[in-house]
Specification:
Strands 2-1-3 form a 3-stranded antiparallel β-sheet. It has 2 helices and 3 strands. Helix content is 19%, strand content 17%. It starts with 10 loop residues before the first strand and ends with a strand.
C-alpha cells in the first residue's frame, strides 16, 4: 500500500507590530520588527530540500542565524513585554529601502549557507541590514 507521510512545517518570520509613539512629535504609529517562530507561516517559500535529517540539521542552523539577527526584537510580541533590546535597529522600515521582513529573510538565508534566489514578486528592502537612525525614543513606545 501507499503510505502517506505528513510533512512538518516550521518557519521563522519577521513581523511588524504596531506601537504608539507618545513622544514629543507623537502620537504616531510606529512599527517594530519581531522575529516569530511558527508552525503555520503566513507565506512561505521552499528554500531547502533534502532528507529529513538534512532538513532538520539545516533548520537548526537557520534558527541559530535568526536568533543572531540584531535588527529585530526577539521574544513573544503578544506579551508586549518587549524591552526593545535592539532599538533603534528594530524599527520596521517601509519601502523604498530600509530594514524589513525582506531584509531579514535574505540575511538569514545567506548566513545559513542557503543560496539566495530572491522571492517571487516585488520585495523592496535593504539586501543587508543597516543601522537605523531615528529620534524616536524606545521609552515613548506603548502598545496602542
Amino acid at each position: 500500500g501507499h503510505r502517506k507521510t505528513r510533512k512538518k512545517m516550521q518557519a521563522v518570520e519577521l513581523e511588524p507590530y504596531a506601537y504608539l509613539n507618545i513622544g514629543l512629535r507623537g502620537p504616531a504609529v510606529v512599527f517594530v520588527s519581531f522575529i516569530v517562530f511558527a508552525d503555520q507561516p503566513h507565506k512561505f517559500e521552499n528554500l531547502f530540500s533534502g532528507t529529513p535529517a538534512q532538513v532538520a540539521a539545516k533548520w537548526r542552523y537557520v534558527v541559530v542565524n535568526a536568533n543572531a539577527y540584531k535588527y529585530a526584537e526577539h521574544g513573544s510580541p503578544p506579551d508586549w513585554g518587549a524591552s526593545f533590546e535592539f532599538w533603534p535597529n528594530s524599527l520596521y522600515q517601509l519601502p523604498p529601502g530600509g530594514n524589513n521582513s525582506n531584509t531579514f529573510a535574505e540575511a538569514t538565508v545567506k548566513a545559513s549557507g542557503i543560496p539566495w534566489r530572491g522571492l517571487p514578486g516585488s520585495h523592496p528592502g535593504n539586501n543587508a541590514p543597516r543601522p537605523v537612525h531615528t529620534r524616536i525614543n524606545k521609552f515613548d513606545l506603548v502598545r496602542g
